[in-house]
Amino acid sequence: MKKFKAKIHITLKPGVFDPQGKVILSALKTLGHKGAKGVRTGKYFEIELEAEDKSSAKQEVEQICHDLLANPVIEDYSHRVSEV
Amino acid sequence: MEIKVTPELVAQHGLTPEEYERIKEILGREPNFTELGIFSVMWSEHCSYKSSLPWLKSLPREGENLLAKAGEENAGAVEIGDGWVVVFKMESHNHPSAVEPYQGAATGVGGIMRDIFAMGARPIASLNSLRFGNLESPQTRYLFDGVVRGIADYGNCFGVPNVGGEVYFEDTYQENPLVNVMALGVAKRGYLASALAKGPGNPVFIVGSSTGRDGIHGATFASEELNEKSQARRPSVQIGDPFMEKLLLEACLEAIRGGHIVGIQDMGAAGITCSTSEMAAKGGCGMKIDLDKVPRREEGMIPYELMLSESQERMLLVVERGYEEEVKAIFKKWELNCEVIGQVVEEGWLKVREGGEVVASIPPHSLVVGEGAPVYKRKEKKPKYLDRVGKRLKGRFPPPADFNQALLKLLSSPTISSKEWVYRQYDTMVRTNTLLPPGSDAAVIRIKKLNKGLALTADGNGRYCYLDPRMGGRIAVAEAARNLICSGAKPLAVTDCLNFGNPEDPEVFWTFARCVEGIGEACRAMQTPVTGGNVSFYNQSPQGSVYPTPVIGMVGLIDDLDKVTTQWFKEKGDLILLLGENRGELGGSEYLRVIYGMVGGGCPVLDLDYELRVQALCRWGIAQGLVKSAHDLSEGGLAIALAEACLASPEGRVGAWVDSLDGPDEVSSLFGESQSRIIVTVEDEGWKRLKEKGDNSGVKVRVIGKVGGDKLKIGNLVDLDLGRLEDEYRFSLVRIMEGRS
User: Fold this and answer.
1) In this predicted complex, what is the ipTM?
2) Which of B237, B244, B298 sits opposite A74 (nearest CB)?
3) Averaged pLDDT, B179-207
4) Which domain, by its residues, includes A35?
């Protein structure tokens, strides 16, 4: 078994309303960041796992993202898996 | 780049060839893509009530204190004295919740709240009525958890207490859960607002959130069967923002109080399209709308998308000309968008422009329910399945091996067991007017300035309606009224949410028609007019339709707050009385389903006249100060009602000893669900007066036992420690949902 680390980003699908992002944007403007034009929020995960090889690690991470970390109805995910 | 309207596109929009011909007739030409979208949503079942309208008209809609009749305004309104008005309505958000439970349920709450404050009323309470499949399935737990969190988060952030409701679990709702939410608000009569546009030249405002691509075609989506295709439709999910809605509430109420709002309507299903056309049609005028002025969240939106977007937390306002700046100042203060997007015009056309060009031009009345929208008289056929399950069970029933075990099993069934896991997620006390939070027969909210109370309940047993739609419809109304009576209230009026399968299926439509008949009969008898509500069809999955499930939301008035009554036993030594009669009915019971896995044998028979007499007797007993607790008998029958009365008190459980049963056999005595029955407790001699009154009005009244001890004993059949009962009753749902054993 080899050790891997997965770095995962979860973001809202394009077009899905992001109330949190909207509030952050208005806070930025209040703080004087006049150039701020848009904010989209998301989540970041790091997962350590053991697997036979990189492709099976990737497959497992894919499953984890789909089944648990992301809500595929409104969120997209992307991940990078590397050996440690 | 104009999208060409083809027969395929028309079909994709859910319009029939006949409907398309009618559109051409109305316009005198072919519609363009935007217009096709507009007709499609407005003529969808969800917006047009095209199948249900003829039947809804048969419901009693008149009452002495009714200010707004069903369908005329955003919600129903009933006067409760001293110029105060209570405004309430129930709506479904079934299909959105099936696809994305958290956001679906949350935006359901948001939508019903907007209906209330669009009337000028401040929302003070909400309830919900939920149906899910078998909790053993992870999918059901996911849906249940998401829906409850969605309701909780939206309501808690918005700051309106969630005070009650009901949850049932039946296999029939496995893929198509039902999420019905009810809200109630109060207003001074003079500040009620109306959903109409009038006065040519008056500006039309869009206020609140910006418009994005959310929920485009949500309305047509709600009118289609859920199948594999709805997966692909997923991105149309709307996301709610309760903090934004709170701002919108305060701004709208302030603007309405300012006195220069001609009309206001919530943007729910079909967004700008629905609000502009309905308000214009109601005022008998037209409107011109300039889409360039609509604040947007996304770039590149086409007129079709702008007109149909269901972005949440938006309202359409018609303002008296000359007061634009005043209104803008209010919305600016609350940091909300407030843009003039058009004007009321004399001639009866809705003209929509973008970039100077007319992109849609339609007579508004041709779009709206009760006017130009199509109405169908659907075919009815008595369903075949009724031959199998509708016949009433007769005779004596064999006892279970062990009554104690049967009772414990029933108590732990998710439909019966305590819903604490649900309502402990809700803020039930915010605004500090909740006299009775969830856990008794009905919730009670105080109207501080009036020193009166309002009792609220939502009820509907889908299984009864499946087994006998007409009787089930009656029972839903009667049980709601009984719950209010038991809480010390006088029933005032009803809002209903009718959840059914595909109305084009004659067997489904037959059950719909019979349910509405039953509801109508009972509402007439109870003198509780139907003030409005919502119909949700196409609740089905490839496995078939859900049970016909009408949910009745009922509001009652409590004149004297000292008369608020709760379901739980109070003091050792109090006598337990049973009002009403056991007819030996076991069909349709929770007992048959839980113990034998059987759904059948008809449902209990409800005699409206007898029901009224039982209710009158209970109300009299409460008014006389005789009754210390009152609890209606429903799912699980007498045994469950007794167990609940022993366990429900926030001050701690108290036992009971019951030694007199009245059914033809032991099983139906304990677990039969015969209607029109209430258990009350009284102090020593009180029973004589109730008995005498009962004898005079022809209601059976019997002393069946006594409060006291730390056990529930029923004859020589049940003998259980309260600790054991409480463990099953209170913690079964928690154990399932939180995986604790």
Assistant:
1) 0.88
2) B237
3) 95
4) 2-83
Provide the token pair at B495: 């809002």
pLDDT at B3: 79
Residue B102 lies in a domain: yes
Assigned token pair, B547? 């049970």
Q: Where are the beta strands (DSSP E) in B375-439?
A: 434-436
Q: Are residues B282 and B320 in the same domain?
A: yes
Kindly list the strands in the beta sheet with A75-83, ordered across the sheet, starting from the edge strand earlier in the chain: A42-51, A2-12, A75-83
Residues of chain B numbered 244-283 and touching chain A (CB < 8 Å): 244
Local confidence band at B219 (pLDDT 50, 70, 90 cut-offs): very low
Kind plus residue range of the DSSP H or E element containing B125: strand B122-132
Number of structural domains found in chain B: 3
Across the interface, of B99, B103, B298, the residue whose CB is closest to A15 is B298
- Contact predicate B740/B734, CB 8 Å: yes
Per residue in B608-656, pLDDT (tens digit) is 999 999 999 999 999 999 999 999 999 999 999 999 999 999 999 999 9
- Output the CA–CA distances (angstroms, integers) from residue B536 to B146, B402, B503, B548, B603, in the order listed: 21, 42, 10, 11, 24
Residue B230: the pLDDT is 42
Vertex B14: Cα angle to B12 and B16 (nearest 5): 110
Q: Are residues B33 and B12 both part of a single domain? A: yes
Interface probe, candidates B95, B99, B103, chain A, greatest A C-beta count within 10 A: B103
In tens, the pLDDT along A17-76 reads 899 999 999 999 999 999 999 999 999 999 999 999 999 999 999 999 999 999 988 899
Q: What is the CATH number of the domain that holds B110?
A: 3.30.1330.10
- Same domain for B580 and B716, yes or no, is yes
Could you tell me what percent of chain B has a pLDDT over 90?
Answer: 86
Residues of B that are catalytic: 46, 93
A-chain residues within 8 Å CB-CB of B234? 72-74
Q: Which domain holds residue B577?
A: 387-417+565-741
CB contact under 8 A, B214 and A18: no
- Give the count of domains, chain A: 1
Residue B382 lies in a domain: no
DSSP state string for B159-182: T--EEEEEEEE-GGGSSS-EEEEE
- Does B241 touch chain A if contact means CB atoms closer than 8 Å? yes
Could you say which of B234, B237, B241 has the minimum Cβ distance to residue A19? B241
Report whether B676 contacts B583 (CB < 8 A): no
Q: What whole-number distance in Å separates Cα of residue B155 and Cα of residue B239? A: 14
pLDDT higher than threshold 90 for residue B396: no
Contacts of A13 in chain B (CB under 8 A): 235
CATH number reported for the structural domain that contains residue A61 in this entry: 3.30.1280.10
B515 lies in the same domain as B458: yes
Q: Is residue B364 located within the same domain as residue B469?
A: no
Burial class from Cβ neighbours inside 10 Å (0-12, 13-18, 19+) for residue B650 reads exposed
The last residue of a domain, from among B341, B375, B409? B375
Residues of A in contact with B95 (CB under 8 A): none
State whether B66 and B32 are in the same domain.
no
Q: Judge whether B298 is closer than 8 Å to chain A, CB to CB.
A: yes
pLDDT band, very low/low/confident/very high, at B269 (cuts 50, 70, 90): confident
The three-class DSSP label of residue B75 is: coil
d(CA B144, CA B737): 9
Residues B342 and B290 in one domain: yes
Q: Is residue B381 part of a domain?
A: no
Q: Look at residue B233 in the predicted model and tell me its pLDDT.
A: 42
B296 in a structural domain: yes
Average pLDDT, chain B: 93
3-class secondary structure, B534: strand
Final residue in a domain of this structure, among B562, B589, B606: B562
Residues B442-473: pLDDT tens digits? 999 999 888 899 999 999 999 999 999 999 99
- Indicate if B319 and B227 belong to the same structural domain: yes
